[in-house]
Structure to design on (533 residues):
């Protein structure tokens, strides 16, 4: 029972700790974590740096006003108290017109962030945070700077739908690559701009070994590409050809290979608005002559959370949780395996809880499973319904935490059951692999000569001559004597022999308190007794 209480207490602290961390995060004004730098760029025609090159000044530099003066930098605050700077472009602040004439057009806010890594849960998390901040700041548009070779289809689909549902223009700047999942996300944007030498396409779904996935996955990807292209008025056949080499389009793709576009080809086929090699040139082509740019930059905490949300890391944490619990149950007291298991559980659930993926009841399901498994392994002989139920609840809790929810208006958000089944199968495989692996490692390592040199593992058996010195002296005098059971023996308890109290265990069954007993043997530090009629 001490083991059960220890595990339940420590795991319950996980919810409290996550709640405190979440509350502190919001209290510090970091519900959306990240710092924001405001890079103010004037249009080429209005830049007065003496060169006429239209290059933007560095962050924090003053922009010339054409008369030797400088435009003042004004300190303001973003929502949640996050400071940022922007350059006052108005006439009263010494704007481009030198302080006179008609009021200048108000500068529009452009929010930008980057998708430069493999598309996955961190990318989806970053997109949500950036779009939420852009809406709260009332940004005129969002510009995504992209350079990716693809990634997870589920994360790409979430980002795609988020872009399509966003209530203001979204532009993408393909700096180098927009392959596979990157192509799907780019096609979802209202406007596509590409740097010189960039490419877009090659959206074939592949497995972990880089080989094309079965046709059902390709069919689904084609439908996503087709409907996304249609939503933005682009040729859906071209989008499909980026996935299916069988699709032939005269003059565009008649080679029988998956379609990819260079910048010039994308422009010619209306899959790119224009070539753009700088943010300034892209925003001017999009019609933003006066603008302020706010960039999303993840903090160290963001990067840690993103790392912990990676599928590979989540899988390793699950294995550490299960392995730690198993090895802890094989050793008495609180040891290193318990520390590993609890640490892995915190690292697994805390990022998911802070991101809104894991809810209180999902963590409680996991804790209930752990408790049932401990009861089965510690208190009940054999392995039956309780142990199996514990494993099921543990797998369910771990899987629910990784699964997105479907908004239904209830206080408890229900999971996306289709995604849950897929995740649950993967988690179950990890749990079973870890359990069997832990058993195998335990037998191989704990039974090895090397481990024998580290700790004492020999048992002092009575048939090898080991006896309790105190009981050995009394063995000949106590055997055969009668006494009274002072407590219930179930099967261990206390008996009184000749007025002395002894620890005893019943030879068979239970013995009630007050029953007469007889000593039949001397065990290890206790008597073995039977009821006397």
């Amino acid at each position: 029972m001490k083991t059960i209480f220890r595990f339940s207490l420590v795991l319950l602290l996980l919810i409290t700790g996550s709640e405190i961390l979440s509350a502190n995060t919001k209290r510090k004004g970091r519900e959306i974590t990240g710092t924001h730098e405001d890079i103010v760029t004037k249009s080429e025609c209005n830049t007065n740096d003496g060169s006429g090159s239209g290059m933007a000044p560095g962050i924090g530099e003053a922009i010339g006003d054409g008369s030797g003066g400088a435009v003042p930098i004004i300190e303001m605050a973003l929502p949640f108290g996050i400071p940022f700077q922007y350059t006052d472009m108005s006439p009263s602040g010494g704007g481009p017109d030198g302080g006179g004439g008609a009021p200048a057009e108000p500068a529009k806010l452009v929010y930008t962030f980057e998708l430069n890594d493999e598309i996955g849960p961190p990318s989806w998390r970053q997109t949500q945070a950036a779009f939420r901040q852009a809406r709260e700041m009332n940004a005129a548009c969002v510009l995504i700077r992209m350079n990716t070779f693809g990634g997870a289809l589920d994360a790409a689909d979430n980002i795609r739908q988020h872009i399509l549902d966003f209530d203001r223009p979204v532009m993408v700047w393909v700096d180098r690559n927009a392959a596979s999942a990157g192509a799907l996300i780019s096609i979802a944007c209202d406007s596509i701009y590409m740097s010189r030498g960039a490419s877009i396409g090659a959206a074939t779904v592949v497995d972990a070994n880089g080989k094309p996935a079965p046709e059902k996955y390709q069919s689904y990807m084609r439908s996503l590409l087709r409907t996304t292209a249609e939503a933005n008025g682009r040729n859906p056949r071209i989008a499909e050809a980026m996935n299916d080499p069988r699709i032939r389009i005269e003059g565009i793709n008649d080679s029988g290979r998956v379609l990819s576009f260079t910048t010039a080809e994308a422009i010619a086929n209306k899959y790119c608005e224009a070539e753009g090699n700088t943010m300034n040139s892209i925003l001017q082509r999009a019609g933003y002559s006066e603008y302020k740019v706010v960039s999303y930059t993840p903090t160290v905490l963001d990067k840690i959370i993103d790392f912990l949300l990676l599928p590979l890391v989540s899988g390793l944490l699950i294995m550490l949780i299960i392995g730690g619990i198993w090895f802890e149950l094989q050793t008495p007291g609180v040891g290193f395996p318990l520390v590993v298991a609890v640490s892995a559980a915190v690292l697994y659930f805390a990022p998911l809880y802070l991101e809104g993926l894991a809810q209180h009841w999902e963590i409680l399901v996991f804790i209930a499973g752990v408790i049932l498994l401990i009861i089965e392994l510690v208190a009940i002989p054999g392995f039956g319904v309780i142990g199996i139920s514990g494993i099921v609840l543990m797998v369910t809790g771990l899987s629910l935490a990784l699964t997105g929810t479907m908004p239904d208006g209830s206080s408890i958000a229900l999971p996306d059951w289709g995604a849950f089944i897929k995740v649950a199968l993967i988690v179950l495989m990890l749990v079973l692999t870890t359990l069997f692996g832990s058993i195998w490692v335990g037998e191989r390592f704990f039974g090895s000569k090397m481990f024998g040199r580290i700790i004492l593992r020999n048992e002092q058996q009575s048939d090898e001559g080991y006896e309790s010195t105190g009981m050995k002296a009394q063995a000949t005098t106590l055997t055969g004597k009668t006494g009274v059971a002072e407590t219930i023996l179930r099967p261990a308890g206390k008996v009184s022999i000749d007025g002395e109290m002894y620890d005893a265990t019943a030879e068979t069954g239970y013995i009630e308190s007050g029953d007469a007993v007889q000593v039949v043997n001397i065990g290890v530090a206790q008597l073995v007794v039977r009821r006397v009629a």
About this structure: The radius of gyration is 34 Å. The longest strand covers residues 170-179. Residues 1-102, 405-412 have pLDDT under 50 and may be disordered. The CA atoms of residues 471 and 523 lie 8 Å apart.
